Amino acid sequence: MIKAAVLPLKSIDKLHITEPLSQIAEIRLRAGRPSVAVNVFGEMKVCSSAFTAEEIGDCFAEICRYSVYSFEEEIARGFVTLDGGHRVGISGTAVTKNGKIMSIKDISGLNIRIAHQVRGCADELYERVFSRGLRSLLLAGKPLSGKTTVLRDLARRIGERHRVVLIDSRNELSASVRGTPTLDIGLNTDALCGVEKSEGIMLALRSLSPEVVICDEIGDDGAAVEQAMFCGVKIIASAHAGSIEELKRRPSTRDIVPFFESAAVLGERGRLAEYRENR
């Protein structure tokens, strides 16, 4: 059974999960329904009796450290990150102003995505892409394909010998506590937490002299990516897509694909499914 000592939440004590946490990808809590654990193979198992709306509210308050207003910006983006890098997605009623989501109220569901440190999971990709030196890489995959875990391991391996800056917008990659990473991101890797990708890339260029910048879930950040590459800095970034052709068609990524020297797609559990070099 998962205890509060494993995840930093006392309000989930009623969960009964028999698989080790290393095999769990998500825990989904929904008001009025039993919770469900999703393992790394995508299998779903009921793991509690129904959560009441009050219990969901208590859990949400604990996630926000009993100061919801302190997390307004994160809540507006639909998630809050726990210590340890675990990201909690939020479902409920969106509060909008001028077409922009300002907050989420009437919280009805919480999706706890479990952060994993899997040393060696990026070995295949590292040998395929970086055996002849540093390259820029756009890493694609479907949800739960392991992109974040693989990026973290790439930072660890590349950071053994090169200067790396990790743009950790959601604090999932480094799981920093008061600015100090709690996961192994590499000897020569610096983490910039809580900053958006474009701003973080430019900040890294100005002040941290990176050879490589790594960031998760890149989107409309083409100008910053281009600027970094013109400065001789390699970018390693991830994006949601099931194939390289999808990367080229998606509005948020199609314009930046040509900037990258290589592109890869992860299949199940972080395995390399497709790789292509832009010559």
Tell me what you see in this structure.
The protein is α/β, with parallel strands linked by helices. The chain folds into two domains: 10-113, Beta-Lactamase; 123-277, 3-Layer(aba) Sandwich (Rossmann fold). Helices cover 22% and strands 31% of the residues. The strands form two sheets. A seven-stranded mixed sheet has the order 9-8-10-11-7-12-13, with helices on both faces. It has a six-stranded antiparallel sheet with strand order 3-2-1-6-5-4. Helix 5 runs parallel beside helix 6 (222-230). The longest helix has 12 residues, at 147-158. The protein is globular.
Strand content of the residues, in percent? 25-35%
Number of domains: 2
User: Can you list the strand order of the major beta sheet?
Assistant: 9-8-10-11-7-12-13
Ranges where pLDDT stays below 50 over 5 or more residues in a row are 1-5
The ordered string of helix (H) and strand (E) elements is EEEHHEEEHEHEEHEHEHEE
What is the general shape? globular
Average pLDDT rating: 91
Helix content: 10-25%
CATH A-level architecture of the largest domain: 3-Layer(aba) Sandwich
Identify the quaternary structure here. Answer: single chain
At the third CATH level, what is the topology name of the largest domain?
Rossmann fold
Give the N-to-C terminal Cα separation.
Answer: 51 Å
Broad structural category: alpha/beta
DSSP helical segment count = 7
